[in-house]
Amino acid sequence: LFRGGKEKQIRERIIELDLIEAVISLAPGLLYSTVIPIVMLVINKNKKALHKNKILMINAEDIVSGKKTNSLNKGDIAEFIDLFNNDSEVPGQSKLVDKEDIQDGNLLVARYVVKDNFFEDRELGQVVLDMDKLMEFPTVELKDIAIVNRGFNLTSKNETKYGKYGVIKISDVDNGEIDYKTLVRCDVTKNTKVENYLIEKGD
After folding, report:
1. How many other CB atoms sit within 10 Å of the CB of residue 133?
2. Is the distance from CB of 118 to CB of 127 less than 8 angstroms?
3. How far apart are CA 82 and CA 75, in angstroms?
4. Which residues pair with 186 in a beta bridge?
5. What is the pLDDT of residues 41-97, one digit of tens each?
6. List of long-range contacts for 191-197, beta carbons under 8 Å, 24+ apart
7. pTM summary value
8. Helix, strand, or coil (residue 72)
9. Beta carbons of 115 and 109 less than 8 angstroms apart
10. How far apart are CA 17 and CA 28, in angstroms?
């Protein structure tokens, strides 16, 4: 759905010919052989007028049944069929996208259907995002405003109880705060450019 090369050329040609009516992203684990999400492409040479030059993106990843393993029952199937037949968009679940807005032949549903358009803020409470307005803001590449270094590749061999350096892992960050007392300690080899990994105030 997003890879380059020949696959990208094929996708772009199919999009150009206006053959894709819908892209439906289903829940992971529906097939026994893999846990990755399944995506259905609906191809239609005779699209209805409303869908001409558009692609219906549907996020149906939350429409799923089963306890130990994911499965689809008749009600689940009926639900995403309703999404497909519904001529109006459902926020967080479906969106009609102009084929001109499909960039680089990318057909990942998550790129066009925003699942959650709000977040919780400690001071403001629930904040609703206007994604269309957000996309209008000018952007800059991260490399233009920051220096980006790869993280330190820590192995168990580097860990020592009284190591010179503390190592911050993602699991050490809770609600934006770091518990420095629980950090793993380590020493590094002489050839390691430690200055590339040290954090400073304001980072």
Report:
1. 8
2. yes
3. 10
4. 159, 165
5. 999 999 989 899 999 999 988 888 877 778 888 888 888 889 889 878 888 889 999
6. 192/152, 194/165, 196/149, 197/149, 197/151, 197/152
7. 0.58
8. coil
9. no
10. 30
